[in-house]
Amino acid sequence: MNLNTFSERVEELRQNLGRVIVGQKETMDLLLTALFADGHVLIESAPGMAKTLMAKTLARVVDAGYNRIQFTPDLMPSDVIGTSIFNMKKSEFEFRAGPLFGQMVLIDEINRAPAKTQSALFEAMEERQITVDGQTYPLRAPFMVMATQNPIEQEGTYRLPEAQLDRFLFMIKPQYPSEAEEVDILERYAGTSNKDTLQTLPRVLTADELRDIQQTLRHLTVQRPIAEYIAHIIRDTRRHPAIFLGASPRAGLYLVYAAKVRAAMNGRDYVIPDDVKHLLSPVLEHRMILNPEKELEGITLKQTIREIADSVEVPR
Predict the structure, then answer these.
(1) Quick one: which of 61, 69, 130, 212 could link to 204 by a disulfide (CB 3.0–4.6 Å)?
(2) Smallest Cα–Cα separation from 145: which of 55, 228, 248?
(3) Which of 32-46, 83-97, 155-169 has the lowest mean pLDDT?
């Protein structure tokens, strides 16, 4: 698929996503970027911000296996990955795959499950495989986890481990709609539901087409000055006085993948510094931890990331 065709397909996806989701252009573009970069996303916002609907809408326009998992405090790892069941007729154990054996997997309220269940996701998200009873089962490509969480309510929730957060390409934080957009939402869904609109969306991409696009975009050019620019930013997050935990090497690699996709979405077969700058916050913010004293001073990670980016010389 050439860049012109890809741009046309991206525009078609945007139009169909816009039929269900009002506004949130930046959020939907990040979801599309993650989709083509073969990455996972964590969507975090207050209740009622259409987090689940965004993930369901994206899954709808891709003709791939879709599963939804509602995380709860009593959920066990076997409820997610599956378990071996004894077959009386055959006198042997058979593996029954869990809902994680999908391609587009929506995990709603991911922070409601305890650490034991969260650990069941680690291998699947990073290695695209699941091991049960010593047997490894590969997951069908493409494989994408779209998780949601509510940062406001703390009772009955568990903080996600840093190792798990690092496996998400983006943390996306949808913003409240403008007044005009909110009026549009009220008018659009006054006599119908978003479920009705969702069911009318066409399948824009097949799983095979998506996999081919992902492989093609991975081969886009990243010049050495851009790679050095990214590495410099990542390293500076580890030595900045306001930061307790900086970004990992995986963060730099994911930043490269996402920047390639953004370049292609803008009709280029090469990455420029603006691609990197635009994606710094969604790629880095959830991977870093501020020093407690700086947090008390009102300093935010977004501000610190911007400060680091401004201090690094932009390649010409």
Answers:
(1) 61
(2) 55
(3) 83-97
